[in-house]
Amino acid sequence: NRDGLIMGRIDSPLTSETILSVRNVARMLVSEGISIIYSSPLGRAAFTASIYSEVLSAPLHFRPEMPELSCGEWEGRIRAEVAGDSSVLRKTWREKPPQGESYEDAETRVGHFLKDLADSVARETTILVVGHAGVNRVVLKLLLALDPSEALRISCPHDLVYIVHGHGAVRHKGVAGQEGEGLLSEPY
To answer: What is the DSSP string of 30-89?
Structure first.
């Protein structure tokens, strides 16, 4: 966000620039054949998912397991106050903010969501999951059986999507035209 706030579970409205970017991502996904959308119920993700649903003509379902990782006492604070010059808030998979949640903590709830999908959605169905950077790392870790240190480095920009195939192959597509195989990494 523009103010450098730690959001976690608090919400903020999407900017007009972000709404335009979401529409561009949605148009980019038309050729993927998405037939159902699952989303975090937090407002910023829910609004994003509603745009995808409209553009892709796909039904939208909100899942209580998918909100961003809680940042506890850090939510609403300036990132630099808490993390200094570091680009990360959690340096390990188990680290958690005071009264907050670790990536490891989130694995339980996200794991329930993924198991439910595996049990209830036909394997050939193309699904779009709209989450948040932290929870998306957890989804990718679980889907791809990644080591926690690998998952911590996954880059999750707002204008890029990861396409995970049933056999574990991953592609990425972004509105700026970037496209390729595999996960993008952030310096850690």
So the answer is: GGG---EEEE-SSHHHHHHHHHHHHHHT--EEE-TT-SPPP-GGGTTSBHHHHHTT-S-S
Distance CA 160, CA 182 (A): 12
* pLDDT 10s digits, 99-120: 999 999 999 999 999 999 999 8
| Predicted structure pTM score | 0.94
In the structure, how many helices (H) and strands (E) does the chain have? 6, 6
Which bin fits 130, alpha (ψ -120 to 50), beta or left (φ > 0)? beta
Considering only CA atoms, which of 181, 117, 136, 178 is closest in space to residue 45? 136
Least confident residue range of 41-55, 63-77, 159-173: 159-173
Dihedral angle, C-alpha 175, 47, 123, 157, nearest 10 ° = 40
* Mean pLDDT of the residues in the chain: 94
| Number of CB atoms found within 10 A of residue 142's CB | 17
Distance (Å, rounded) from C-alpha 33 to C-alpha 30? Answer: 6
